[in-house]
Amino acid sequence: MNLRSLDLNLLPVLEAVYTERSLTRASEFLHITQPAVSNALARLRTHFEDPLFVREGRGVKPTAMAEALMPAVRDALDRLRAGLEPRSVFEPSRSTRVFNISARDAGAFMIAPRLARRLQDVAPGVRISWTQLNRGAISTELASGRLDLAIDVPGIRGTDLEREPLMTTPYVCVVSEDHPAAQEPLTFETFIALRHVVVSSRREGRSYVEEVARSHGARITPVMRLPHYMPALEIVRHTDLALTVPALLTQSPGLVAHELPGVFPQLDSELYWRRENSEDAALSWLRALILDAAAGLDAAGGQDLHLGEHACSRRLSLGE
Asked: Of 88, 248, 261, 262, whose CB count within 10 A is highest?
């Protein structure tokens, strides 16, 4: 493709038609006339020698060529918008900026739904791209600008990083409500004796649960290892396996949650960003939303846990 022969002003039209699946809605979004959209689309079709969109019902659907083009087009436009947007001025209601956030499974589960609801109300054009990076890559990705924010455990290193405590939640041990240990007291010894499924984002190495057990002279050999909590919780619901999980993830029928012995520390999370972006109005706004979402979890007192008869029956909340 000869880029010099392409009018780059046409790319927002391509993006709008792709997103809206309608020339009429694309014209409304772009605040231009429908004939102007049609003219721009005709020029794009000539340039790429492809229809790009074909009629489907009352709208249009992209061709294989359009599907192939869109990732690069969107990435280019997102970078251009972010670069041209004044760092000291940000209007959430009018912004179409894409923010890239790295978070572990539990962090995304707790924060993303609340953040999505808030964005729907105040910034419907803003998009969030969630990913899960290896901790060793977070500092580099933030420095490169490919990542805007990260939610992870304390200890991420980087001389140019800023951080702020985000949330704290205790771990609990969950088993099926039909599990023989569901109504029994949970001591360290009975916990170690359970058959475990563990969650770890790493392919190798000991999980959090195995590390804690080992530090106290015990050993756990997991029956199954997964990278995410949701399938692990479903496995626990239908087997005799036990799972150690952040308390805020346990609101699910068919499970009994036990407080863990005191040797298990709580899960602390921090919000990370690049120091030079501290005055970026858009990122400051997003950080405030994320911190507010975490505070909302704390204020809600966590989630009600279905505790066994001999387990402590208080509510487990963030910060306890």
From this structure: 248
